[in-house]
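Researcher: I'd like a structural prediction for the single chain below. Treat it as a standalone chain; there are no partners to consider.
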Amino acid sequence: MRSPFRFVKHSPCVRVAVFILLALLLCGSTACDRQEGPEKTDEAVRGVTDSEILIGSSLALGGHAGYLGTQSLHGALAYLNTINELGGVQGRKIRLITYDDAYDPAKCVYYTQKLIVEDMVFALFCYVGTPTTVKIIPLVAEARIPLVGMFTGAHALREPFHRYIINVRASYYQETGAAVEYMVEKLGIHRVAVFYQYDAYGFDGLKGTELALQKYNLAPVATGTYIRGTVNVMEGLDKIILSAAEAVVLIGTYDPCAQFITQARQRGFKPLFYNVSFVGSDELARKLGKEDDGVIVTQVVPPPEQLGTREMLRGAKEYTRNLKRFFPEDEPNFVGLEGYLNAIVLVEGLKRSGPRLNRERFIEAIESITDFDLGIDNTLNFGPTDHQGLDRVYFTRLENGKFILMSKEETNSPQSPVIRP
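Model: Treating it as a single chain, here is the predicted structure.
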């Protein structure tokens, strides 16, 4: 068979020209399309025009986690809308495209692909949940697109280190670690059970609890599970009641956790009920009503109101004021405040990037944020190898239908930052 490439004798100059042309064609179709290391181009950037910065989010806006997604979004928009009213960042308004993934990992992956490929957003923001968010880690890495301010403390978003993932809040390992320390050292509890959502979120909370208990040569005396999207808690509750646990760590959302606590009490089982922050404290409180004895939640942001006073932290006051302007039907809450703080971090990174915005400059700008005042008496710190801005864990207890901040005397802790595992 004759070769598709036929070489003809030409002068040396012609041969050199042909080889150069072939090299350029090959480079354009293969190697030159691949970037080694961070891109530093000043050419047109996806999602950025002279007047707009396009940001994308996939989160639960309805269904069994709808309260968490809705309040995260409203909190974030309360700040972003305020910034846009003031002219935006470097003259660019911030526009947020959102899709309702219903806390479904498959939908989250689909909508994330749509945001990156079709909507061509500059960055991803305000994702909600562990089982959803951890599924998009490969997409983020492949697209080299920033993912900022997620409502999840998942360990997989922190270890191994991911250049394009920016966590603001403390992790679940830090929350469960602080809670186990409080139970064992302050309350003298040694029989701890775990009730968890049977997915990546629940596994993360279970692992964090197990690691914390190991420090005291302890292990869970029982475990129980439920399936995400259901309130089928009875099988898990039966196992845990038989264990005679003194405390139960609940890693779930507000509906199944409220159901577990209510059913346990009706059966005369009244241990300490401890929940991590993702539970949605305000919605949990509403569902439990006035029967609030023995329920605590660790938080990653302070309550909007200080314990024992009507004095509010500056950041919480600003959140409350702007929330009422844009979402007057909402009551200030922990989830919304976290969303508001996430938006502050996003905007600060955009501001520090300067007018020649691109993704790499944005990441470097985030890494330059140190000792930044969010107005919550807890400064924000990032670095080139540290993409988690906050470490503090707050203890709250349910009292008269509302979660209030516990004092350092109650917890035997100054409510200071928790050392990372």
